[in-house]
Amino acid sequence: MGETLELITVYQADDESAEENATSVCDALVEAGYTAVVVDDSDPEVPEGTFEVRVPADQAEAARAALAGDPSEDLDMVPLFEKGTELSDMEAMNIKALLEANGIQAVVIGAEMLPNLPCEIQVPRDQLEAAEAIVAEALKSAETAPQEDTTPQA
After folding, report:
1. Does domain 7-74 have CATH number 3.60.21?
2. Span 33-47, pLDDT tens digits
3. What pTM was estimated for this model as a whole?
């Protein structure tokens, strides 16, 4: 009869991005040579809404040490612009569309019911530099683009 492998939880998350973060952690451990699996709340031992990454007991200590530089921090959402930069709802949505067209996940934070209040755009920490470069390039292109004459012709 086959022996069941004891798996130890080395990572656990229960926030909005728990599944994505757990998958990233698991992928990083597998890439580093560990035997890791993601377990969700369909397992009776896992609390509802939680995702865990488990490894065999003999790998648990080394896997925890490997996670000391946890890659999920790279997925934390951070503001794209400095504090004090105010964007209208329309500007924020245009920038979000530009970033997503370039493969960067972006979230607009603001009061949808009050579009006259400023919005903030957040991107994953590990994509911040790329997002800043894309926006800078778009602004540079807009500044150098020829302006159309919009005066009415008689």
Report:
1. no
2. 999 999 999 999 888
3. 0.48
